[in-house]
Structure formats: structure tokens, C-alpha cells
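Priority: medium. Attachment 1 of 2:
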């Protein structure tokens, strides 16, 4: 079965992890510090906090932004459930705003209509690898005193308007799962423009520990002292994962080049095929294509999915609208809430896309899909 995504591991990656195993630090060591600095440089120089997954990154980000009961978080239904569930777990009410039918990205006009004085965060998702319209979203959030969050699980390494992912929203979350644009095994990161939010993110992911003597409330203890002012969790990335991530970052530009090349070949092959619709790219965006979301028209998506899988091609669907999940449906969210997102979901099919995909593999995908829809 040809997978729709997979990791790319080199001998340099293996050597980097092996070097950590031979060293003194398996976690909370120098590789983590170096990786966070490298992510910061990639993301515009802002504070980066590494963590154990993209889901952990979202939990950290919402906690660092002070999300809690009584707050509202506006987000898109066209995403993995964690974008919404991590806010809900902190007690916030999730408000879903519809997407642009062409791109699958959250629609600023829908966000505008959903804003209230209780809005704490506007959380966009860089679906498939291209950035949402943060130039439009930021003023909306600012108007009600909210913060913007970019769920950049798909877009690490991309840019918009000449600015890198990580510099486009107040807070950016990243995922380094094996199928993503670079991997630490499991892992993620939170990038924060506001240093205060960045410090809160760090402490939340580090069990809430405060180690700055100037902030201690217990001032008569010894040099070993540390204390907890707010609850936190252990979401720390290991030095093993960080070393792998550092090695992967050295090849990020090559990963991007190959993903762009494959996307261009798919676009050309499917441009004039009846029954298919190719992805639409926003003006001013330089995507890091993580998914290739072809649209299968005429109600044939499931048929084509099953026949592609039967032909040994591992297509996927990204994603069921979040509020269709029973955990949200039981709270009263109804189908029909975001019609563009639901129509996009009904048509979307993710084709194989990863750097090691050969030209022959791409030809096989193209030929099989064209034959099935003809």
C-alpha cells in the first residue's frame, strides 16, 4: 500500500539520535534548548516552547492565553478535533465559523459574525499547508481584545506576505508527527510573540515550576528551591526527539521543494479532468504543502476512496467537521452549522504527498485516479 504520508529519515537523523543516547542528557538537556532556538529562528525570532505533540501544543497555547470557563474560542470545523477539544477541556465554549469553500480556510467574514465580548481566542488552521488570512483575522481579534492562534500543524516552513509561519499570529502551534513537514517522532511546539505568554507556556508545559528567585513567594528556602504558582503538566520534549528535529530542520527546504514539485504535477494532471477540482492557493501565500486535497465531485468521494485503496493507494480524508464528533454533537452542535465546511468534507480526498514519493509513484496515483473518475 502506497501511504498518503510518511516520515523521511536519513542516516544523519539516526546519527543525531544515537549521539544523544551516548551522551549525558536524554531529556531537559542541550538538544532541547538548541531545537527551541532553531524553531524560534524559523518562526521569526519569537519564543518557542517545544512539547510532546501538536495536541499538547494546543493545550499549552490555550492555557498560556488564559482560556477558561466563560470564554469563547472561535475556530474552524475543518481541522483535527484537537484544535477545538483542547479549548473545550479548559472550559471554553467553542464557536465554529465556516470556511471558504475554495480553500477550506476559516472565513474572516464568518469570524466577524461570531465575535462577542466573550471571545478570548480566534484559532485559525493553516489547512493543507497554506496560511489562513491573518491580516484579516488579527484586526477582528484586536477589536474585542482577543488573541489570534495559528494552528500551523500543516504549514511549518511556509510563509505569507514574506513573513514566516510563526510570525503571522499572536501564538502559533506546530506538530512534528511523522507524517508532518518535519518530525521529532511525536512532538510539537508553541511560538509566542508576547514574552509573558511564552513564559506562561513554558511553565505550563514544565509542571508549573517557577525557578526565578525574584518571583518566589517562599523566600527562606535554600538554593535547591523551586515552586508552583499555577497547575501545569509534563509536556516536555526529550533530547532524543529534539535531536531528530534539529537534523530534520536541515532538510526542511528540500522537503518543501519536493512537496511543491509533487503538488504542481498533480495540479497540472488534474486541472481539466471532469469530476475533480484541484486545490486553490491564496494570493501572497507560499505554502508548505502538507496535504494534497483533491475534491471529488458528483457525490463520488466514498466510491473513489474505496477504489483507490483497493488499488493499493493510501488516500485519506481530512477532516470530518469537528462538531459532527459525538462529543460535540451531544453538546447540541447541529449538522448544517457550517455548510461550506460540510460540502468541502463531502468532496475532499487527500492524495499521497511526502518527500520520498517517486515520480513513478506520482504517475501511478495520477493514472489510477483519472481512470476511476473517467
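Attachment 2 of 2:
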Amino acid at each position: 500500500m502506497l501511504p498518503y504520508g510518511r516520515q523521511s529519515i536519513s542516516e544523519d537523523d539516526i546519527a543525531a539520535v544515537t549521539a544523544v543516547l551516548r551522551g549525558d542528557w536524554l531529556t531537559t538537556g542541550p538538544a532541547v534548548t538548541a531545537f527551541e532556538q532553531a524553531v524560534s529562528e524559523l518562526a521569526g525570532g519569537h519564543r518557542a516552547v517545544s512539547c510532546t505533540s501538536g495536541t499538547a501544543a494546543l493545550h499549552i497555547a490555550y492555557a498560556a492565553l488564559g482560556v477558561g470557563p466563560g470564554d469563547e474560542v472561535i475556530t474552524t470545523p475543518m481541522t483535527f478535533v484537537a484544535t477545538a477539544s483542547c479549548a473545550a477541556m479548559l472550559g471554553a465554549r467553542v464557536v465554529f465559523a465556516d470556511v471558504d469553500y475554495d480553500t477550506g480556510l476559516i472565513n474572516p467574514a464568518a469570524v466577524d459574525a461570531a465575535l462577542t465580548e466573550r471571545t478570548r481566542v480566534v484559532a485559525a488552521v493553516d489547512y493543507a499547508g497554506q496560511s489562513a488570512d491573518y491580516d484579516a483575522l488579527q484586526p477582528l481579534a484586536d477589536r474585542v481584545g482577543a488573541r489570534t492562534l495559528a494552528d500551523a500543524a500543516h504549514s511549518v516552513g511556509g510563509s505569507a506576505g514574506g513573513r514566516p509561519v510563526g510570525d503571522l499570529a499572536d501564538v502559533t502551534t506546530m506538530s512534528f508527527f511523522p507524517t508532518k513537514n518535519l518530525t521529532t517522532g511525536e512532538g510539537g511546539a508553541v511560538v509566542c510573540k508576547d514574552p509573558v505568554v511564552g513564559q506562561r507556556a513554558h511553565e505550563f508545559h514544565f509542571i508549573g515550576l517557577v525557578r526565578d528567585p525574584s518571583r518566589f513567594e517562599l523566600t527562606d528556602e535554600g538554593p535547591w528551591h523551586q515552586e508552583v504558582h499555577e497547575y501545569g503538566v509534563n509536556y516536555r520534549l526529550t533530547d532524543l526527539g529534539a535531536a531528530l528535529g534539529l537534523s530534520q530542520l536541515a532538510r526542511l527546504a528540500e522537503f518543501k521543494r519536493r512537496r511543491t514539485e509533487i503538488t504542481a504535477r498533480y495540479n497540472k494532471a488534474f486541472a481539466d479532468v471532469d469530476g475533480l477540482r484541484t486545490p486553490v492557493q491564496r494570493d501572497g501565500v507560499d505554502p508548505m504543502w502538507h496535504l494534497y486535497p483533491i475534491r471529488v465531485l458528483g457525490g463520488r468521494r466514498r466510491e473513489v476512496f474505496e477504489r483507490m485503496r483497493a488499488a493499493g493507494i493510501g488516500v485519506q480524508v481530512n477532516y470530518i467537521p469537528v462538531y459532527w464528533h459525538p462529543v460535540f454533537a451531544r453538546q447540541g452542535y447541529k449538522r448544517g452549522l457550517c455548510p461550506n465546511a460540510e460540502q468541502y468534507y463531502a468532496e475532499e480526498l487527500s492524495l499521497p504527498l511526502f518527500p520520498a514519493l517517486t515520480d513513478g509513484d506520482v504517475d501511478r496515483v495520477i493514472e489510477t485516479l483519472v481512470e476511476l473518475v473517467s
